[in-house]
Design a protein that fits this description.
The protein has a domain at about 65-170: 2-Layer Sandwich (TolA/TonB C-terminal domain). It is about 35% helix and about 25% strand. It is built from four helices and nine strands. The chain has helices at about 1-25, 65-75, 90-105, 135-145, and strands at about 30-35, 50, 85-90, 110-120, 125-130, 150, 155, 160, 160-170. α3 runs antiparallel to α4.
Length: about 180
């Protein structure tokens, strides 16, 4: 009799596991985020201050999955299998944290698009500004991008110079 009870208990569990597996296939992609260091006045819950729905912010290029690496590579034209783009050597998190601190002062709203020239040693050599919501924010972010060390790009498996695009959209939540 105990074996039958075990079967009846296990059957709903197996059904639940199958349902969970089906639901996992339908889940939206994960959202990676950075939260406030200190919550806003009037709450104990730190808000999200930066999000990425595509790439984990806390991983180096070598730690990204092949699908995530392919997504980064897709932003470039004509990347061959042995080619890799430049990428912040410590991942996006330190870069985004520094930009967040600049935004805390600037309180800019709008799109920022910059292009960093990275040499074969992984050093930024120049920053071009394509679009910016605020001059002071642009200057601060350009400084951060110039000071960031990058994983050098690879062209046919060899280190080479290549550009790194940097795009963010800023908003300010009014309370």
């Amino acid at each position: 009799m105990k074996q039958l009870i075990g079967l009846f208990v296990a059957a709903p569990l197996i059904g639940a596991l199958c349902s969970a597996a089906q639901a996992a296939d339908e889940l939206p992609p994960p959202v990676y985020s950075i939260k406030q260091d200190v919550p806003s006045t009037g709450t104990n819950i730190p808000r999200k201050v930066a999000t990425s729905s595509e790439i984990p912010l806390n991983r180096r290029y070598s730690e990204l999955t092949p699908a995530e690496q392919a997504l980064v590579k897709s932003r470039y034209e004509a990347m061959l299998p042995l080619d890799e783009p430049p990428y912040p050597i410590d991942g996006l998190l330190p870069l985004f944290n520094a930009v967040r601190k600049a935004q805390d002062v600037a309180l800019a709203q709008g799109e920022l698009t910059m292009f960093v020239d990275v040499n074969a040693q992984g050093e930024a050599t120049s920053v071009s500004v394509m679009k910016s919501p605020d001059a002071k924010l642009t200057q601060a972010v350009a400084s951060v991008l110039m000071l960031t060390k990058y994983k050098p790009a690879l062209c046919r498996g060899q280190p080479c110079s290549m550009g790194y695009p940097f795009r963010m959209t800023f908003s300010v939540e009014r309370r």
